[in-house]
Structures are given as C-alpha cells and as structure tokens.
Amino acid sequence: MPVVGVIGGGQLARMMIPAAVGLGIELRVLAEAPDSSARLAATAVGDYRDEATVLAFARECDVITFDHEHVPQAVLRALVAAGAAVHPGPDALLYAQDKLMMRERLSQLGVPQPDWARVESADDLTGFLADHGGRAVVKTPRGGYDGKGVRVIDDAAQVADWLADGPLLAEELVAFERELAQLIARRPSGAAQLWPLVETVQRGGVCAEVIAPAPQTTDAQQRAAAEIATSIAHGLGVTGVLAVELFAASDGRVLVNELAMRPHNSGHVTIDGSVTSQFEQHLRAVLDWPLGDTTPLAPWGVMINVFGSLPDEKIAAALGHQPTAKVHAYGKGPRAGRKAGHVTVIGAELDDVAYRARAAASHFDD
Ligand SMILES: Nc1ncnc2c1ncn2[C@@H]1O[C@H](COP(=O)(O)OP(=O)(O)O)[C@@H](O)[C@H]1O
Ligand SMILES: [Mg+2]
Asked: What domains can be seen in the chain, in order of their start residue?
C-alpha cells in the first residue's frame, strides 16, 4: 500500500479519506489538533512549522502533500533535502504562498492578469490609486484566506496598518461579470487533465456557491481558461491539483485572480458530479498514477457552502426534504462564519438543480 502523508487536518484532508480508501492508499495526516476535521486519518498531531515534527511524519510516508499552503519554505526544503517526495514541491508552492511572487511569475509567463504593483509605501499606493481611477484592491502577500487580507480602498491610509508590516500587492479593481475557477491536475511525469470551467459566487469575499459548468461563458472564455491553467501547471511545475481563480471581465477577457495548489472549494462539486473527484485525482497525481476521466455525471451541478455548523437534526431534515441532495459535513465544532460543510445537487436542468441545492442548504440557515 502506498502511504500518502497529508500536512494539515482540515476538510480537504478529510475529503481525501474516502478516495484513499477506494484506491487502497494508506492516508496519514499530520493534524493541528486531535479534533481536526481529518482526525479519522490523523496519525500525528503537531506543528507543521516545526521541521523536526514534519520530518518525523514524512519518514513514515512515500509521498507528502498538503491540506493548505502554509508550510514554511525552509521546512519544505528540509523535506526535499531529506529525500522526501513532496507534491507540489517548494518551487511551485511558493506561488500559491505569496501573491506578490505569483504576480511577478505570471507576468513572466505572459498570463493575463489585472494591472498590479508591489507597493512599499503610502506614496507608492497613492500613485497606483491615481493611475487606476482612485480605487484599488490591496492584498497582504501571505496568509490571507476567505477575503481576510483583501481590502478595496480609495485612500492609502486605509491600509496603513498593513504597510507597517511590509510590501503589499495593489491590483486594479476588476469590474468582473462573474468569477470562474479552472481546475487541473498534473502528474510529476507531466500528464495533465482539466475539469470543465466552473463559476464561483462569493459573498463577503468568501465562496458561497459553485455552478458547474460555468453558465453563460463563451467557447473563447473556456478555451482561454483552459490554456491559462495548462500553461501555469506546466510553467510552474505544479504536481497534484491546481485551482486557478479567474475573473471574467466585462470586456470578455479572462484574468487570473489567484492560485491554489491543492484540492479547492470550487472543485467540491466534482465529488458527486464527476467521474473522478478532485480528491481522487489529487491522490493519483501526487503518486504519479494515471489520471481519471473528468467528464461530468450530469449536465449541471450546484454546490452550496454551509457556514457555522451542521447539527445532526438539521442534516436529517435536509436529507428528508431533498433526497437528491448530497450533504457533506466537515466534522468541525460550531463557529460562526467558518466553512462547516457543503451541499451538492446534480441534474438535467440548472434552475431545478439550483433550487434543490438551495432548498437543502437552507436547512442550515440560522
Ligand atoms: N483585483 C480585484 N478586483 C475585483 N475584485 C477582487 C480583486 N481581487 C480580489 N477580489 C475579490 O475578493 C475576493 C477574495 O480575493 P482573493 O485574492 O481571492 O483572496 P482570498 O485569498 O481571501 O481568497 C475575490 O474572490 C474577489 O471576489
Ligand atoms: Mg481567493
């Protein structure tokens, strides 16, 4: 049995478990705490920033992969130096860890992006604002998620707190028609496989809903998204699943927002809606096994995130009212605003699929 070690015990590691069971892979997880979402597969509990902890965990594994991108570069490089097979490797993962490095590298690759600049001072930022109609999006290069670390500003003073801590990424405020995500998986030996392009709907900077495939996108946009993801996957040498978050701009262009190098929220719909889920594909890819078919199992799939908590009685009510809905609970304790699970429905008519998915998810409304 090949042993795949996952660093991080969140819901992404949790959802790799059934895929690993099916393929006869022994999955081991280095979790943050004994009650982590992926506790069923946790063989170690410890700090992913601690080199000795991570090296000891990796010694028991054939391949190391990730639930999140926060493992420090120094620890990643120590793993590689110790002979571990790390997928994605540190040279690729860097561009999912640091949004400034990502913008610089994607510029070199010639990938279409919003206008951007590295800003180190209020003066730099004031200049950028003046060149972009007085408004901009400012991001902390590292550590942001779910919209934390992203502010829309019209005055440099609005990020004075962040500027004190180091350089920031300034971006043009893109007037997008919709947000899209293109998922792809790539093996170390080079083969890659795309899923159909999806639309992601964010509320308050957080993904709320995913529609697969993306409605109302042109063939040209789908081709552009596929080309962008393919060139990033090969250009950066990504191994495993790569998610490319995209803006469909009102002028028809497709621009890269950011990258994730692991299974991604926009791909949860593939669990119930694709011949091969992103979790199975990620495991196949990091083991350099043949990739699976990514054909959808139905014309439409809609995935709705659930925040806060999924108490058993509400799960039972949702299942009782919506027998076609698939409910996924992440086994986390209740916490307001935190992703706690998701609901997916697939089927033939988008209106009907979206209605049933929203009806099932509404059982978890507070
Ligand atoms: N340049 C931009 N123009 C317009 N909206 C943006 C821009 N950058 C980010 N956003 C909005 O903020 C959300 C979160 O930004 P993102 O960089 O993806 O941060 P996170 O790492 O928190 O997901 C995006 O999904 C999008 O809705
Ligand atoms: Mg994002």
From this structure: 3-86 (3.40.50.20), 115-172 (3.30.1490.20), 176-364 (3.30.470.20)
